[in-house]
Write a structure and sequence with these properties.
heterodimer; A: 462 residues; alpha/beta; D-Maltodextrin-Binding Protein, domain 2; five-stranded mixed beta sheet; four-stranded mixed beta sheet; 10% strand; B: 321 residues; mainly alpha; MetI-like fold; 13 helices
Amino acid sequence: MPVFRTHPTRPLPLTTPRRRACAVAGTMLAAPAVTSACAPGAAAPQQATSSAISTSVPTDKVSLTIAHFESGGGGTAIDKLISAYEQKHPNVTIKAAYTSFNDYGKSIKLSMSSDSAPDIAEVGQAYTMQGPLVKAGLLRPLDAYAKAYGWDTRFQTGLLNQSRFQPDGKSFGAGNLYGLALGGNMVGIYYNKKAIAQLGITVPFKDVADFNAALAKVKGAGQVPIELGNSEQWPGNHVLSSLIAQYAPLDQQVAWVYGKKGASFASAGVIQATTTMSTWARNGYFDPAANGTSNDDAVARFAKGTGAFFISGNWTLASIEEKMGKNAGFTPVPPVTAGAPARATGATTSPFGISSKSKHADVAANFIDFMTRPEAAQTLSAGGYAPVAPGAATAAASPLQQDFNAAWSKVLTDDGLCLYLDWATTSMGDTLFPGVQELLGDKTTPDKLVTAVQADWVKAHG
Amino acid sequence: MTAESVTVPPGLTPAATSQPGPRAAQPAARRSSGAPGEPRLVPYLYIAPAFLLFLAFVLAPLLHTVWLSFFSWDGISLGEWVGLGNYSTELADPALRTALTHSLVFVITFCVLPVAVGLIVATILSRQQLRGLAAFRTILFLPQVMAMVVVGVAWRWMYADTGTVNQLLQLVGLPAGEAWLGSFTWALPFIGLVGTWVMTGLCMVLFLAGVGNIDVELYDAARVDGAGAVREFFAVTLPGLRQELSVALTITVIAALRSFDLVYVTTGGGPGTATIVPGTEIYRLAFRDGQVGAACAVAVLLTVVIFAVVAVITRIVGEES
C-alpha cells in the first residue's frame, strides 16, 4: 500500500507574525514621505484668466454632451429644446446623458474630473455638487457670458445668487456665477377639496393662525390633518422650513444658508417656527405613521383620502394631479401676519454649468442661453418647470397648475424664496433631517434641535 | 528504492492479488527542486488566476482604502495628509459608538438567534427520517439566495402600518397599527429580525448536513449510558457540529457587523439615529458629507473589529486536532 505523506497539523505561515508587524510599521513611517508627493485627487488647474468669449456660434462641426437628472416632463422639455437648437444650428450635435438623481449625485464628481467630462452638466446648488466641483476648479465661471447675454437683467439677482460660489468653495451666494437654472420649485399646501369643503374650511389661509384653526377642525372631526411620509427623512424638513420662512426674516435666513459670518439659526423666529411644528406633532396633526411611511406611499394615501393637507413642492404636482384630478388644490403657506409679503421654501431648480475642460465653452453657453430665453418658456413650463424669467409665457395649465402658478408668481414678485435648509453645510442634511424625525416623534425639543443645527453650522463656517 | 509489499485489504479474493504489483515497476517521481516534503511551486500556478482576481478586486482596494484613510479628502480636490487624525476623530465621535452598539443588536439577531434555532431544529430532526427533507432544505435556504436589497424592500412593505406584519398581529390580538420602521424603539430590533429570517435557513441547512455526519453509534452509546436529550445534545451533537458551528458563526457575525444594504433600504439609519450602523456611517461620510478619508478610517476600523471577532470565534470554536 502506498505511503501517504501526512500534512502538518498547523499550516506554516508565510511570514512570522513579528516580521509582518514590522513591515506594517515600516510602511506607516515611510508613508508621509511617499504620500505627500502623491496625495489622492488633483489640485485645481490654473484658471485660464478670461480668454475672449464669443456669443456667436462657429460654423464648423461641433459636438456637445449635456448631463442631467431630469426625468419625466423635465427631461422631455430638455430633449425638445435640444432638437430646436439643432434645427437652428445644423452643424451642432448635442447628446443628452440622463442619470437618475440618486446615481447622478454619486457619479458627477468622477465624471467631471475625467477627461471625457460632459460639456454642460446639471449641478445642484450648495456643497453637495457645486461646492466640491468649484473647489476642484472643474466648473467654468460664467460671469462674462452673463454680461454678454444679459442674464443679469433677465433674472432677478436673488435667483442668480443661488448659483454663485466663492472660488475656494467655502461659501456661496456671492462670487463667480457657475450655472444657470431652467426653472424654480417651491413648497406649499396641497389640499383635498372635498375634505375641507365638508368642514367649512376656506382657502387661501389669511395667516398661520387661520391654518392652525383649520388643522384643529380637521383633527376634531377625527381625520388626519396633515399627511406626511417621512421615512426618507427629507419631506419633514420642508414642513419645518416652510414655517421658518414665515416666522424668520428672509435676509437673516438667506444669509445663514449662504454661510455668512455671524449668521445664526438660533433666532427667535426659527425657534417659534420649530415650536409650532413640535406643537403640531404633539397635537397629533401629522399622520402617526409619518416616520415609517415613504413619500410616495404618503402621496398615494393623500390621494385616497387620508389627510386633508399635504405639504410638498411642485415636484409632486404631476403625481397628485394624476391621482386626484379636480379634487386637489394648491395654496401657499400663509404668513404670520395677514397681508405680509409672500414667503416660501423654494429655489431655482438645479442650474446647468459648463465644465472647465470643455473645448466648446462658447457653444455651450450659447445653448444654455437658448434654453433660458423667453422663447423657450412655453416648452419649459409644459415640462413642469416653474418659470423664473418674469413675464414668461406659460402653457395652458390645469386648475391645480394654475393654483401653483399664481402662488409662484406672487412669491417671485415679493422675492420671497427662502432656499433649502440643508444647503447650509455639507453635513446639514444628516444633522437636520434625523432631528426633524425626532421632533415628529417627540424625542427632542425645539431648543435641542436648533442647538444641534447651529453647532453643525459653526463647525463648517466658524 | 525499496520494493513495497502490497498488503491485501480484508475481503478481497486471492484471485485479484495474482496480478503483478503495479508499484514495483513505477519510476521515481521527478522533483524540480527542494527537499522531500517541501511544497512545490507548480500548485501556485493553479491558484494564480483566482488569486490575481482577488488581488485586483479585493486586496488592492483594501490597501487603497487604508492609504486613503490617512488623508482628508472630498473625492476630487487634492487630499491633505492627516496621518491618524481621521482615526482619532472618528473614535471620539459618539455617532460611531452608537452605530457599533446597534451592530451588537444585529450580532444577537443575525448570529446568536439563527445559530440557536438551527441547532435546536437540527437536533430534533437528527433522528427522524423526514420525508421531503431535500425540498425542505431548499425552501429554508431561499432567503440566502435573495439579494439583501430585495429582502429589505419586501420587509419594508410588510412592516408598514397597513402591512402584513400588523395584519398578522391583529389576528393574534396583539397591539398593531404602528409603522414599525418609524418607531424609535422597535425599528432596530425589527430590522434585526429580518436578519434572523435571512440567516436561520443557512444555519439550519449547515447543521442538518453536519448532524447527518455524526456517527449514529455515538448516540446509541450515549443512550446506553443513560443520557437524556439535553445531555445527548451537549455530549454528542454539539462537539460533532464543531466545524459547522465555526462556519455558521463566522458567516453570520460578518453579515451582522458589515450590514449596510438592509438598513439603507429599510430606514436609511432613521428614525433619527435609531438604526445607524457602521455600514451606513461609512456611506454617509463618503457619499453625503464628502469626507472620504474619514469614511475609509471607519471602514478600516470595522475591518479590524471583524477580523478580531472572527479570530476569537475560530480560536474558541474551531476544530482542534
